[in-house]
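Data deposition worksheet. Section B asks for the primary sequence of the deposited chain exactly as it was used as input, without tags or linkers unless they were present during the calculation. Section C holds the resulting structure in token form. Section D is free text for depositor observations; keep each observation to a single sentence. Incomplete worksheets are returned to the depositor.
Section A, Depositor: J.P.
Section B:
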Amino acid sequence: MNAATETDRALVDRVAKGDRAAVRLLFMRHHARIYRFVARQTGSEMMADDITNEVFLELWRQAPGFEGRSEVSTWLLGIARFKALSSLRKKKEDWIDDDDAAQVPDSADTPEVVTMKEDKAAALRRFVDALPEEHRTVIDLAYYHGQSVTEIGEVLNIPVATVKTRMFYARKKLGEALKAAGYDRGWP
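Section C:
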């Protein structure tokens, strides 16, 4: 079997045996997806770069314990999410407090002007960003990373029913936001 057709699971088995080339192959296959996911979670390209590299170091360490109960991509996204949340918790004390933030003048356009300037996809992305973290994460994993409901449950370590409930409320809020901004729910 050549490297292009070798499954991710087979590559993890090779990593577990100390094969560095297998780590490089998995890195090439999954780096961009993990980087984009972490960048969305943290809002920082620098953090995303560091965390993505940490994910592959963790792959090297944890490969012998990988049981194959989920897809390798799902497992890696779960590691990435944990590392992103941990980094955000550590960084939290450096964030600006609410009183200081209230003093910063708001130079943003009104919602009507922003909506007129952007197309529907950009507006939708903005509405996704405004969702509570638990809803934003399920939408991000489903629509921007192509994860199934089951895979999302594995990444977030929550039951499938909870994923479905969060997805329902997230879609409802997005629909309301689109309607309020003057968009109908159809595309475009």
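Section D:
Residues 113-117 have pLDDT under 50 and may be disordered.
The CA atoms of residues 69 and 75 lie 9 Å apart.
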